[in-house]
TrEMBL record, chain A:
Keyword ATP-binding found: yes
Identification of the protein by name: serine--tRNA ligase
GO biological process, one term: mitochondrial seryl-tRNA aminoacylation
Lineage: Eukaryota, Viridiplantae, Streptophyta, Embryophyta, Tracheophyta
EC number, UniProt record: 6.1.1.11
Length: 396, 513
């Protein structure tokens, strides 16, 4: 298995689909953005834009490189074809570099090849059946010839079919999810404020930032961590440790009350699981740490191992909804975030997080989305925080 | 920077010094073992036995390969030379492959070259001084020649000196820590039981192991973890999800243990779990050895920690602490990651040996004269904690062959696990004296008490002693609690001290499914 080093690749090539890039303005915790600048080198970009690849081709290749995907997404191509205007508009709105035309083209081709393959197989079966009966030697010889030709033709076509299927996967995996009709089109600047809770606190003395406060209270150590591990690492000390324990304990009990099953998860997972969740461990400026000598990564969020918990399963309807509250440490490279550096805890490589995750029936996901955001609002209000709730098209 | 892949290397070569290998019988949580079988390929082994290397040479090389160490340990060569019988006996007792003769030889050579270098420098200075005065042109010319020769000679000698120093480091770093006189000499069978607390619980129904219990209680998931991760087919996945009450159990154990050790004067800490490889090495582990326990990060010179001992030891790296600060007592909570490479044969299902787990670790920095007594304090704290939870256990003074290179003395606590039908290690308390501090560069300045010395606090510095002890290793504790407190109906009673930290939960009951 080739391992791609955590090397810096120029921004023009960093146009991977489901890349896990830090948000700049709202400094979001997790954001998957569509490539936000249309690159000059679109074709080259495509080679980087396909996830689920065993190797990433870095040479200039006009048609894009089709390599065997390690796994296949069960994409509904027929639906895409039947709704291509909506899909195309969505791709545009999200500034994605998915190539819908190519997908549809490949899909048609694939269907045709499939039809041809099916036809040839039928003929070959017919020939095989004919050969069971009593035949003149010359007739038999003709059928044998015919059978041989059909077989050769089939082998070629079947190879083509595999190649087409792989290429179709590669292109189609780039297509972003559809978007809820209420989401405003455009970037963060077009965001809608859904709700505001509380007001900024008023201080009658000069306000300090958390870094100063923490230092004076002797509850952090960033300097020692820089020596031991590097920048953006830290030790919590004394009451900060109690604060972390208290926050986790309290939040856990609050979400358990609301019917969530508590969970702790592995923090090392297979790279393919990371990809299946929509992240790109081997993209340029990836947020994902990889383990040396293994096809494994550190998780950036418990979403990944929790999503993976029911991988390749058929759940009975009575089990749904499944609501988990997963506690884990999270690891992020924060590559590409150097310019937006803030001191302190704002952007760090390792942190603890309690994550809610729901598996539900399709008709219910909108309402569970509302439930989740309500739970979050309740939690933060209880802690007396002032915050606003934003709705915007999160660019991948 | 070359990266050495996590490849399997035959056991014969696995003779690295400070390797972090799993214990077989006592199923140790952490053990740094000296190489326990004298390998047939001793010379090859030496190439693997040197830590702090930028690259590891894998060719058959009689004298060993000298490569530039990334960092230097402040080893007391003079002391080693003056105590060479004791050092030699210690190396033998610990079954270490350190080469003392070579170290002493290199040391002598180095001293001689150093003397020669000093002498040449003096001569060169003398020549330089002479040239300041008024001289005949022919005399000046002679001096210039002389100066040039001296300079060339010096350059060569200085290069030799650097090479010798590097080689000396490489060899000397292999020498394990000295050993406390009371430690029994020999292998595992020679370890001494210091104390036994409690008795094995008596059950009047068939006893289940934690794996069965956990499954019935729906508090683990190993299968999903095996899907989400690559699995070792024979031994199970070694990764797991904790669910439901097991999560409460983990939180309860951490919260309770933390409050107990805070009461005893320990400063709570959470630590980075990704650290520089050099820090791992300085603590006495070998990230790039064969069968290493250490996960490395791709494309970086960083590793995942196997224990909070590493980032805590590093907290005071390259520092001079004032005496008044000592002792520094930390209780550090972290997740720990271990490859458990080489542990396939000793596989047990369930939580016994896993790749990732939570642990609360005690760590002490103290004055040298006090480390023995802090070692006693740490083991006493551990014994108190485990007694409070009603566990039956024995405290063992580990024999020399079971001590990792940094440990001067090590006490293991082995608790009775009725479901597994044996004792299993739940904690380890080591006194590393100055082994780690000489590598991490942690010193303190003794305060001057002499009234005649006006320069208070300016005396020579000394290396601190470091100690580490497991306060709570979550998976082993979960095993103990589930197996010891199981009831006939498959439920598990929660010991009283933990209940307030688990929302008052008294019992984990089987789920009706």
């Amino acid at each position: 298995m080739q391992t791609v080093k955590l090397a810096a690749i120029p921004a023009a090539f960093s146009s991977s689909c489901f890349m896990f890039r830090p948000v700049t303005k709202t400094l979001g915790l997790i954001s998957r953005r569509n490539h936000s600048q249309k690159p000059p080198f679109r074709l080259l970009a495509r080679a980087f834009s396909a996830p689920a690849l065993q190797t990433i081709d870095t040479t200039d290749n006009k048609g894009g490189v089709a390599v065997k995907p390690q796994w296949k997404a069960a994409i509904d191509f027929k639906w895409i074809r039947d709704n291509k205007e909506a899909v195309s508009a969505n791709i545009r709105n999200r500034n994605s570099n998915a190539n819908l035309e190519l997908v549809l083209e490949l899909y048609e081709k694939m269907l045709n090849v499939q039809k041809e393959v099916d036809r040839l197989r039928e003929e070959r079966n017919a020939v095989a059946n004919k050969m069971k009966g009593k035949l003149e030697p010359s007739e038999r010889q003709k059928l044998i010839e015919e059978g041989k030709n059909l077989k050769e033709g089939l082998v070629t076509l079947e190879e083509d079919l595999v190649k087409l299927t792989d290429e179709l996967q590669q292109e189609a995996q780039c297509i972003p999810n559809m978007t809820h009709p209420d989401v405003p089109v455009g970037g963060e600047d077009c965001s809608i404020i859904r709700k505001t809770v509380g007001n900024p606190s008023v201080f009658n003395f000069p306000v300090k930032d958390h870094f100063q406060l923490g230092k004076a209270l002797d509850i952090f150590d960033f300097d020692a961590a820089a020596e031991v591990s590097g920048s953006k690492f830290y030790y919590l000390k004394n009451e900060a440790v109690m604060l972390e324990m208290g926050l986790i304990n309290w939040t856990l009990s609050e979400v358990i009350k609301r019917g969530f099953t508590p969970l702790t998860t592995p923090e090392i997972v297979r790279s393919s699981v990371v990809e299946k969740c929509g992240f790109q461990p081997r993209g340029a400026n990836t947020q994902v740490y990889s383990i040396e000598g293994a096809d494994q990564c550190l998780i950036g969020t418990a979403e990944i191992p929790v999503g993976g918990i029911h991988m390749d399963s058929i759940l009975s309807e009575s089990l749904l909804p499944l609501k988990y509250a997963a506690f884990s440490h999270c690891f992020r490279t924060e590559a590409g975030a150097a310019g937006t550096a803030t001191r302190g805890l704002y952007r760090v490589h390792q942190f603890s997080k309690l994550e809610m995750f729901v598996f539900c029936q399709p008709e219910e996901s909108d309402s569970y989305h509302e439930e989740l955001i309500r739970i979050e609002e309740d939690l933060y209000s209880s802690l007396g925080l002032h915050f606003k709730l934003l709705l915007f098209l999160a660019e991948l | 920077m070359q990266t050495v892949k996590l490849a399997a290397i035959p056991a014969a070569f696995s003779s690295s010094c400070f390797m972090f290998r799993p214990v077989t019988k006592t199923l140790g949580l952490i053990s740094r073992r000296n190489h326990s079988q004298k390998p047939p390929f001793r010379l090859l082994a030496r190439a693997f036995s040197a830590p702090a290397l930028q690259t590891i040479d894998t060719t058959d090389n009689k004298g060993g390969v000298v490569v530039k160490p990334q960092w230097k340990a402040a080893i007391d060569f003079k002391w080693i030379r003056d105590n060479k019988e004791a050092v030699s006996a210690n190396i033998r007792n610990r079954n270490s492959n350190a080469n003392l003769e070579l170290v002493l030889e290199l040391y002598e050579k180095m001293l001689n070259v150093q003397k020669e270098v000093d002498r040449l420098r003096e001569e060169r200075n003398a020549v330089a001084n002479k040239m300041k005065g008024k001289l005949e042109p022919s005399e000046r010319q002679k001096l210039i020649e002389e100066g040039k020769n001296l300079k060339e000679g010096l350059v060569t000698l200085e290069e030799d000196l650097v090479k010798l120093t590097d080689e000396l480091q490489q060899e000397a770093q292999c020498i394990p820590n000295m050993t406390h006189p009371d430690v029994p000499v020999g292998g595992e069978d020679c370890s001494i039981i210091r104390k036994t607390v409690g008795n094995p619980s008596v059950f009047n129904f068939p006893v289940k192991d934690h794996f069965q219990l956990g499954k019935a209680l729906d508090i683990f998931d190993f299968d999903a973890a095996a899907e989400v991760l690559l699995l070792f087919i024979v031994s199970g996945s070694k990764f797991y999800y904790l669910k439901n009450e097991a999560v409460m159990l983990e939180m309860g154990l951490i919260n309770w243990t933390l409050s107990e050790v805070i009461k005893r004067g320990f400063t709570p800490l959470t630590t980075p779990e990704i650290v520089r490889s050099s820090v791992v090495e300085k603590c006495g582990f070998q990230p790039r050895g064969a069968n290493t326990q250490v996960y490395s990060i791709e494309g970086a010179d960083q590793c995942l920690i196997g224990t909070a001992e590493i980032p805590v030891g590093g907290i005071h790296m390259d520092s001079i602490l004032s005496e008044s600060l000592l002792p520094l007592k930390y209780a550090a909570f972290s997740h720990c990651f271990r490859t458990e490479a080489g542990a396939a044969g000793t596989a047990t299902r369930g939580l016994y040996r896993v790749h990732q787990f939570s642990k609360l670790e005690m760590f002490v920095f103290c004055q040298p004269e006090e480390s023995d007594s802090y070692h006693e304090e740490l083991i006493r704290i551990e014994e108190d904690l485990y007694s409070s939870l009603g566990l039956h256990f024995k405290t063992v003074d580990m024999a020399t062959e079971d001590l990792g290179a940094p440990a001067y003395r090590k006490f293991d606590v082995e608790a009775w696990m009725p479901g597994l039908g044996r004792y299993g290690e739940i904690s380890s308390a080591s006194n590393c004296t100055d082994y780690q501090s000489r590598r991490l560069g942690i010193r303190y300045r003794p305060s001057q008490l002499s009234s005649t010395n006006a320069k208070k606090g300016k005396g020579p510095t000394r290396f601190v002693h470091t100690l580490n002890a497991t306060a709570c290793a979550i998976p082993r504790m979960i095993i103990c609690l589930l197996e010891n407190y199981q009831q006939e109906d498959g439920s598990v009673i929660i010991p009283e001290p933990l209940r307030p930290f688990m929302g008052g939960l008294e019992r984990i009951s089987p789920k009706c499914s």
